């Protein structure tokens, strides 16, 4: 009952943007466009487009590293697993194949090893 369209634009030449829009029967929701200052004057609006991810995600990266440090100090392991890295690579490869073919591409993972039975990131 749903159609999902994922678009990837690499090396756009004007900066770094991440945005998402959900269009539904009775309205839409959009995120990702209000991360910098919007200047409106003389009948026009201008917004800076960051040149890399740091403007938008620096705080998130700092919190991620701090979480890892805190867990390490407590003798715990947190964060993505090797299986997560494998799955991400398979999805990325399928995305490249879809771009090359212009059609849908199945994502086929190998059977999940028992080692990851307790891993909740499926």
Describe this structure in words.
With 122 residues, the protein is of the alpha+beta class. The chain contains two helices and four strands; from the N terminus they run E-E-E-E-H-H. The protein is extended and about 60 Å long. The mean pLDDT is 81.
Count of DSSP H/I helices: 2
Instruction: Measure the end-to-end span.
Output: 23 Å
General form: extended
Tell me the structural class: alpha+beta
- The secondary-structure element order is EEEEHH
* CA radius of gyration: 20 Å
In oligomeric terms, what are we looking at? single chain
Strand content: 5-15%
Largest sheet features: 2 strands, antiparallel
Tell me the helix content: 25-40%
Keywords:
122 residues; alpha+beta; two-stranded antiparallel sheet; 2 helices; extended
């Amino acid at each position: 009952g749903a159609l999902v369209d994922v678009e990837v634009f690499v090396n756009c030449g004007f900066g770094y943007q991440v945005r998402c829009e959900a269009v539904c029967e009775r309205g839409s929701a959009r995120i990702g466009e209000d991360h910098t200052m919007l200047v409106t004057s003389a009948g026009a609006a201008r917004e800076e487009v960051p040149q890399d991810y740091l403007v938008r995600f620096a705080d998130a990266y700092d919190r991620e590293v701090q979480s890892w440090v805190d867990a390490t100090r407590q003798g715990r392991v947190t964060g993505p697993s090797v299986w997560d890295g494998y799955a991400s690579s398979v999805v990325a490869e399928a995305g490249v194949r879809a771009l090359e073919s212009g059609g849908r591409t199945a994502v086929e993972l190998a059977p999940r090893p028992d080692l990851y039975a307790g891993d909740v990131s499926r």
